[in-house]
Amino acid sequence: MDVNDDLEKLIENLPFFLQDQVNQHEFKDQLIEIVLDLGRRPEARFIMGPEYLSQKTISWQDLDYMTKRLSKFSNENRAGIERTLHRISCIRNRQFLINGLTCRVGRAVFGTISVIRDLLESEKSILILGKPGVGKTTIIREIARVLADEMEKRVIIIDTSNEIAGDSDIPHSGIGRARRMQVAKTELQHQIMIEAIENHMPQVIVIDEIGTELEVLAARTIAEKGVQLVGTTHGNCLENLIKNPPLADLIGGIQYVTLSDDEAKRRGTQKSILERKAYPAFEIIIEINDQNSWTIHENVKNSVDLFLRGHFGIGQVRKFSLTEKVKIKCHNYHNSLTTSSNTLNNVNTLPIKNWSTINTSKNLKSVEFRQQKLIIYPYSLSNNLLKEVLLKMGFNFILTNEIKKANLIIGLRKHLKQNYRLITLAKQKNIPIYSVNQVSVYQITKFIQFLNS
């Protein structure tokens, strides 16, 4: 994981008596922000907690020295430093004079989103939830770079506060080839979101801090036009979003529905219940619990429906560190709305007669993966993707275009369900069929691990 923080450019704009204190601090690399308030001692906030930097208190001259070296403060009382990601926010008194500064360190961190790369490859819209300061902006900056540079998508960033791509007219290198549209006033963000669609033909739009009903409506409009969205909003978890009326439309909106007596009895509920109004604008939600632990809802529609019926459960918890591999833990929903009998590996099996006995000794067509060569017929899946996963896992395999020669069929579930001819032929030849929900390295890897377990 690489970090580019340009910390020296922030330090050189501090009052002189603070520059040496910050430069010589043993935890300088873990600095989050510096707080300068009139008449108080300067305070540095690190990951492990705050501490004072000096016995000297901040004077008007210190604040004036620093503000003159920054760009002009916006209507939201924010300013920046040219060619960096640092954000300086000010506090004003009743005469509109600046009597406090919060200097937040902006870092471009490369490699943070490896834990969710499979979600990016799914081309679904992603919403990131988390409380202020947890790193949402850093994450979507890296997502924008990966989508633009590595996946070669046309990416446009709606940068309202200039936190994603920096304060200068030339965007920070942390966003890669992605393009940035600046927003003159915060209340115009929703207009710029629509303008980006109409004028610049993006495949992906990245938005930081969706907060108003107009911005929610713009996000829904963009989603309905088939453009992938990556956005952030404040909130600790999906439950906060469901219970927040202005933002609830991001996940389909909530409404009261009155059931008939028979239906209420069948469901075992009251006649008036809460239900989702429409399809979610964001299909995947990521809750940032802390920097190294994220909760993933890969099917927002199901998660919302389950919550409204009182059967809400966590989809996945992904943990990672610099020294260990990514760890993914999943939990079953225990509800009829789930689409998979095995949520742990997110692999679905079609209703083929012999699939459940494939690993038993009674089945003459059973496949011993470590001893026998896999002959796979891929349906609606990339041959290159399958080759990449199987080679990494050390399997002896052949990909074939002839169903009769295959001893295993793997395909995308939504396409397999529609091909009755393939299902019938597979039954006749006693060839097991397996399906995955999404085309991604993660899905295929978990599928192979499932079969080999």
UniProtKB/TrEMBL annotation:
<dbReference type="InterPro" id="IPR045735">
    <property type="entry name" value="Spore_III_AA_AAA+_ATPase"/>
</dbReference>
<dbReference type="Pfam" id="PF25516">
    <property type="entry name" value="PTPase"/>
</dbReference>
<dbReference type="Pfam" id="PF19568">
    <property type="entry name" value="Spore_III_AA"/>
</dbReference>
<dbReference type="InterPro" id="IPR003593">
    <property type="entry name" value="AAA+_ATPase"/>
</dbReference>
<keyword id="KW-0547">Nucleotide-binding</keyword>
<dbReference type="GO" id="GO:0005524">
    <property type="term" value="F:ATP binding"/>
</dbReference>
<protein>
    <submittedName>
        <fullName>Hypothetical chloroplast RF45</fullName>
    </submittedName>
</protein>
<keyword id="KW-0934">Plastid</keyword>
<feature type="domain" description="AAA+ ATPase">
    <location>
        <begin position="122"/>
        <end position="261"/>
    </location>
</feature>
<dbReference type="InterPro" id="IPR027417">
    <property type="entry name" value="P-loop_NTPase"/>
</dbReference>
<keyword id="KW-0067">ATP-binding</keyword>
<keyword id="KW-0150">Chloroplast</keyword>
<dbReference type="InterPro" id="IPR058670">
    <property type="entry name" value="PTPase_dom"/>
</dbReference>
